[in-house]
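Lecture notes, unit on binding sites. The following record was shown on slide 14. It pairs a sequence with nicotinamide-adenine-dinucleotide.
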Amino acid sequence: MKAFTPFVDGRFVPWNGPVIESVDPATGEAWCKIARCGEDDADRAMRSARAAFGRWSRLSASDRADKLDQLADGIETGWEELVGPEIRDNGKRISEIRGQFAGLHCWYRHFAGQARHMRAEKQDVSVPGVQCATHFLPYGVVVAITPWNSPLMILAWKLAPALAAGNSVVVKPSELASASTLQFASLAHAAGLPSGLLNVVTGYGHEVGNALVRHPLARKVTFTGSDSGGARVAEAAAKRVVPTTLELGGKSPQLVFADCDLDNAVNGILSGIFLSNGQTCVAGSRLVVEASLKDTLTERILDRARRLKMGDPVDPATQVGPLANAPHLEKVRAMITQAKADGARCLLDGTESTRDMTGFFVGPTVFDLVTRDMAIWRDEVFGPVLAISTFESEEDAIAQANDSAYGLAAGVWTADPDRAARIADLIEAGTVYLNHYRSVDPGSPVGGVKLSGYGRELGPHAVREFLQGKSVWTGLQAVPDPFP
Ligand code: NAD
């Protein structure tokens, strides 16, 4: 079985300690081992990153940008080697992963470009005889904690702006999918990223993850994962007054009006909930449809969902792969069972359609007659499960959309641009898609409201999230005697 060790100070470090097995979700068989790191390993990684920060932060912004461009070149030529480990860890389809990784270098180039334009800002102040400017300083060592669903893309959203800002980064990937991140660190080092700027330690969140967050050298924490994990991380960071950015879960609504372009809406709804088998933070898991359109829309969705080809994620013909790991499989199955017990009508049962498949499979699942007290309406499944409810008025549609503890994303499908604009303003979510769904781009911020988190990644201020302002006042004339 392949064994991965932590990557610290530009090399894989020898490991004789405890290990965690990572299981291939397409087969249910363990395929690699990773180190179960602890407090001492966290400490070594943090110290190495602090030393690297000292060197990196003294470079000019443009020298750092050159290094990031060099890293982007390395990713552009070397990304193929990252595909295998990620598929085996989380079962994402090969075409999806190849698409993500072929564009991975773009995130790094984008934030290298932003770093080139960073400079102090002169401020207008009313005090006579002074100049005032805001300078921007990196934090130091950033702790980045990532989930299993898209380890390298989510890492890029953190690592590229954090490095561009002049920080160093210690990453703790999910214990359920660490291999691609370790392989990426080695690729980044080979591409010229200085030793210690990107260290990777592996293991459990409550062990090594917690040790990193509590470490005296941690100056900023950026976390993507569940709301419960995020709350624990934020609590530990707050004890040392360390700021956090939290990108958490969602229960995103898709509002569909009877006047919509039905083909577009169907495609948007399918991509929202069944791409990556529903294991995306922006999964459009609540379909809130105008009552008069419900039967037609539901039939169209069921027809397409029934025909999706499930199977091996390395087969390019596969349209829906497995769920990523065994605990998640159990959670999704349990939520489907609960929804049935709560009285939702199961129109398509993905536990039945995959009964004879080896591996962690649950297929597209659709529930009708979902009411707002049901867990399937309220809780994130993070799987291919769509919950349908109906509305009679625009007001009701908005009320249903906002009836959630989460607020990550929402979709609106209507031919009426005024209505679309009105709803975009009223929906409580970090992102609203109008007659569109799921796009993400380095130029546009992502993040949530309510239980979906706080802080933003990407967008024009992404590098700023990793910088602190410092006001520098310069006297230009004689200082008056304060006690004349
Ligand atoms: P998770 O919270 O279980 O784990 C995420 C990471 O946090 C893992 O690396 C884990 O080891 C670590 N962790 C957990 N507890 C910790 C602790 N006490 N201290 C330090 N680290 C700790 O989440 P998951 O199951 O890996 O990921 C799925 C979740 O991620 C879903 O809720 C999904 O919506 C969310 N997600 C959000 C976004 C976004 O951009 N908003 C993107 C992808 C996934």
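Take-home: The mean pLDDT is 97.
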